[in-house]
Each structure stands twice: as C-alpha cells, then as structure tokens.
Give the backbone structure.
Amino acid sequence: MADIDIQHPHSLPQPAAREAVEQAITRLGEKFGLDYRWEGETLHFRRSGVDGHIALQPGAVHVSATLGLLFSAMKGTIESELRRMLQERLP
C-alpha cells in the first residue's frame, strides 16, 4: 500500500474552492471510476484499491489517499495528476 498526502494553498473563496474540487474529482472519477460524497467540507472518494479525502480549509486543501496494491505501482502518476489538477483549478 502507498499513501498520498498533499497540502495545496489557494486563494479562492470557499464556495468556488468547493466547486473546483468537485469538478476535479468528477474528472478523476470518470478516469478512474471513483465514487465520492461530501461530508461537511470534506469530500470522501473511493473505489476498489483507493480510499481518500479532500478537506477544504480556508486558503488550502488537504488531499489524503491510501492506494491499494494495484494502484501503489501508479502512485507517482496519480500524485502528479492530482497536483496538476489542483494547480489548474485552485490558484
């Protein structure tokens, strides 16, 4: 198993940040078959072999995920894609 832990600062108001996170996870969901749900200001996502969350904080988001054996081999690719999407959508 492998873990991903990303802290990403942003300058968006909370509603805009929430919308950007939802758009990003929707895109990742289509690509990787993720299911997600909001619980307060935290978006939880999962699929077989992936379990994580994105916590919205004022001025930052915190992405935390645990990858199962199959996805552990793709950790670098998944983490790079997450970072790229955060930079694009949460300036």
Q: What stands out?
A: The radius of gyration is 12 Å.
